[in-house]
Design a protein that fits this description.
alpha+beta; four-stranded mixed β-sheet; 32% helix; eight-stranded mixed β-sheet
Length: 487
């Protein structure tokens, strides 16, 4: 029997689990997929937002900055990759009023690092963008992170501190009887005193299982374009256009590892499981981003992807104990959910404590988690060629030549308390297959290591089924853009 059962292994569920592991409670984390961070957590803008865009009247507006302030500490403890870059909301008009309203709202949300700057200061920060920019709202403390690495780090540290993780456990029903919840999955039945519903896109379905149906999740898709490593080095901060009712618009940023990332667009006519990408949509993203930064080279495009945002019918975060005592909904966590996640976890723990959960500190809690990989400059191919050709098991052997991932790093990733069943899972932990060739060279080499370490065969078809399909290819994008130019 568990004190708390958490449903959902995204950034919110894993962060709540990690915070609960500070205390002497028996905690279970259930995830329906084959790994943590398989939903919106692995397909988003990877931005640690400032906290000025969401209205102070909303819960997401009040939690964003609180969460943002925790990232530096959390990264020092968990080593998932975070860099403070600053952000700019760019305006190409003489009217400063929209930026002033954003700044006023940010101040209400508690921000102390906002300023409106003019063309000269903007170009000093970002010399490579459109020089016709007039004004920008500058937020010094915004940044970028690696969101899937963050969720994996949270889960690993939670497991280290006593949390149990059950993957491939899809919740089928929840019944409350005699102050206990019986949670039935496709694999087993679990009992707990409290249930935290952090099931993302399916949080409305989980909530209805206990008779709470006062919201719906309305999926909103956003497509992105990712370019090869190094393409983001010309961009120093996160570049936004003025936000609309559909979100913050197409952004231009460098990822934590230096890839140029542009997107997302916004589409409400989408199924919850449809993560395909479309050449017409990403070409529009390319055009909008090119207005800000016109040096984007489509030939350096390596991948398109789609994230599905768990937008609630209330258009705000839902974080509350429901009418069913002991059942806590953590739903509708769309942007800025990643940034808010540490503050969301704190709020959930306060709700649990007020509901009767005793939080006695775990004297053996260890907040630290060693990195699997560390960000480092890539070497010339001539410097690493001899290490690529080494046989399996050799010291210093490089498995992925694009991202220069070592065999020992992959072996480390496979033995951290979560069994990694796919190359995609290895990719999110080590960056192997994330480079220019997108796994054409190193995927068989990664599978070879997995089979050696786990002593079982890895089915490549299984990996494809769980890694996303229907991605726009580079040739398809180039043909489409060339066609538009000819028109």
């Amino acid at each position: 029997m568990y004190d708390v059962i958490i449903i959902g292994g995204g950034i919110v569920g894993t962060t709540i689990a990690r915070e609960l592991s500070r205390y002497n409670n028996k905690v279970l984390l259930l995830e329906k997929d084959i790994d943590v961070s398989m939903g919106a957590t692995k397909a988003n803008s990877a931005i640690v937002h400032g906290g000025y865009a969401e209205s102070h009247s909303t819960l997401k507006g009040r939690l964003c900055y609180k969460g943002r302030r925790e990232f530096k500490r959390l990264n020092e403890e968990l080593n998932f990759g975070f860099r403070e870059t600053g952000s700019l909301v760019l305006s190409f008009h003489d009217d400063k009023e929209p930026l002033e309203k954003l700044m006023e709202n940010g101040i209400k949300n508690g921000l102390e690092d906002l300023s409106i700057i003019g063309t000269k200061e903007i170009m000093e920060i970002e010399p490579n963008i459109n020089p016709n920019v007039k004004y920008a709202l500058y937020c010094k403390g915004a940044g970028v992170c690696s969101p899937y690495e963050m969720a994996i780090a949270m889960a690993e540290n939670a497991i280290k501190n006593g949390v149990e993780l059950k993957l491939e456990n899809e919740v089928l029903s929840i019944e409350k009887k005699d102050n206990l919840f019986k949670v039935e999955t496709n694999e087993d039945t679990y009992c707990g005193r409290y249930v935290v519903n952090a099931a993302g896109l399916y949080s409305d379905k989980i909530s209805k299982m206990v008779g709470v149906d006062d919201f719906e999740i309305l999926p909103r898709s956003g497509e992105y374009i990712l370019f090869t490593r190094g393409t983001g080095e010309a961009i120093n901060s996160v570049l936004f256009q003025l936000p609309t009712k559909f979100g913050k618009g197409v952004l231009v940023t460098s990822t934590y590892y230096g890839n140029l990332l542009i997107g997302p667009d916004s589409n409400d006519d989408v199924d919850k499981d449809d993560t395909s990408t479309h050449v017409d949509r990403i070409s529009k993203i390319y055009d909008k981003a090119s207005f800000i930064y016109d040096k984007i080279d489509p030939k350096k495009f390596i991948r398109s992807f789609t994230g599905i945002r768990a937008r609630s019918s209330t258009d705000d975060f839902i974080i509350e104990e429901t009418k069913v005592k002991g059942f806590i909904n953590v739903a509708g966590i769309q942007s800025p959910g990643l940034t808010s996640s540490p503050a969301i976890a704190d709020m959930v723990l306060n709700i649990l404590e007020k509901s009767g959960l005793e939080l006695i500190e775990n004297p053996n809690f260890d907040p630290y988690r060693k990195p699997i990989i560390e960000k480092k400059p890539l070497k010339k191919f001539s410097e690493i060629k001899d290490k690529i050709d080494l046989p399996l098991g050799s010291k210093g052997r490089i498995v992925c030549r694009c991202e220069q991932v070592l065999e020992k790093e992959i072996v480390d990733a496979l033995h951290r308390g979560i069994k990694v069943k796919t190359v995609d899972g290895v990719k999110r932990r080590t960056r192997a297959t994330m480079g220019w060739c997108q796994g054409d060279f190193c995927k068989p080499r990664v599978i070879e290591i997995m089979e050696k370490e786990y002593g079982e065969k890895i089915d490549p078809k299984f990996d494809i089924e769980h890694s996303g399909v229907n991605r726009v290819q580079k040739s398809e994008l180039l043909d489409y853009l060339n066609g538009l130019k000819e028109e």
